[in-house]
Design goal:
The chain has 272 residues and is an alpha/beta fold. The protein is built from 12 helices and 9 strands. 42% of the residues are buried. The model has no long low-confidence stretch (mean pLDDT 96).
């Protein structure tokens, strides 16, 4: 399974780099994430971007004056990230670019980072429950005491809504019931092996057995989740889009919105 994930993302590097800036709907995931980063990140310090892919968040954080370590499982992502970092002249801010898995961060000592981010869904690609628990524990372990940890995952309820809207022919297949009941998808169609989370499951994975407190949860696409075409059309009207964004930020932490968004963000803090 891990090989299939690496193979998938090796062929998806440029698309993943472009994804968060490709249209207003996709930018909402990025912009909403940064809204919460701004709320909880320290003013400066060293950040671990765990599972950071081709480096979109690493580069933006480095531009804002943070020192960053980028870790990802796919060498093709890291090669691309190195080129982008050089292009932006941010080599002094990006202290290290490391190939590795979020399940094993043993190369880093306890309390090593002023903040830890794991964004875009790397935890969703850890298919075994025990490994997911280990990954969360590792993300908490390497954060300094009282430091924030940000994790975003892919949502199970949003996948079911996507099936209803775009792929009704798949509802009769066994994989639909498996995803519905367990959240596990083994790459049968156009995407790679993924575990889709319920919001309460994500919260429990942080709170159970970890010295961390949950500060907030948010639905990154908000109440417009799975309505990409409508959102992009709305964005063509600046007045309406401004009001929609205000509405989005007022409602994205509502529990019902969190569960239905394509990506769920959880913000927590290491207690001691």
């Amino acid at each position: 399974m891990t090989r299939s994930i690496k193979r998938f993302y090796s062929g998806y590097v440029k698309k993943e780099w472009a994804r968060l800036q490709s249209d207003p709907y996709r930018r909402l995931e990025f912009d909403t994430t940064f809204e919460f980063l701004k709320r909880y990140l320290p003013e400066n310090g060293l950040i671990l971007d765990a599972g950071g892919g081709p480096g979109r968040y690493t580069i933006e954080l480095a531009k804002k004056g943070y020192d960053v370590v980028l870790l990802d499982y796919t060498p093709a992502n890291l090669r691309f990230a190195k080129k982008q970092i050089r292009k932006e002249g941010l080599g002094e801010r990006v202290e290290e670019i490391v190939e590795g898995s979020i399940v094993n961060l043993s190369r880093f000592s306890d309390d090593a980072f002023d903040a830890v981010i794991c964004l875009g869904g790397p935890l969703s690609h850890v298919i075994r429950e025990g490994d997911r628990s280990k990954a969360v524990s590792e993300l908490v372990r390497v954060a300094k005491i009282r430091s924030p940890i940000f994790i975003s995952v892919m949502s199970r309820l949003a996948v079911l809504a996507t099936e209803l809207r775009y792929f009704q022919d798949e509802i009769q297949l066994p994989l639909f019931k498996r995803v519905r009941d367990s959240g596990d998808y083994f790459g049968e169609r156009d995407f790679t092996t993924t575990h889709f989370f319920l919001p309460e499951e994500l919260r429990q994975s942080v709170e159970k057995g970890n010295d961390a407190e949950v500060l907030e949860m948010a639905g990154l696409e908000g109440i417009g989740s799975v309505h990409k075409e409508e959102m992009n059309e709305l964005a063509k009207n600046p007045r309406r889009w401004k009001i929609w964004l205000e509405t989005h930020y007022k409602t994205c932490t509502h529990p019902s919105v969190v569960g239905l968004s394509e990506h769920i963000l959880i913000v927590c803090r290491k207690k001691s």
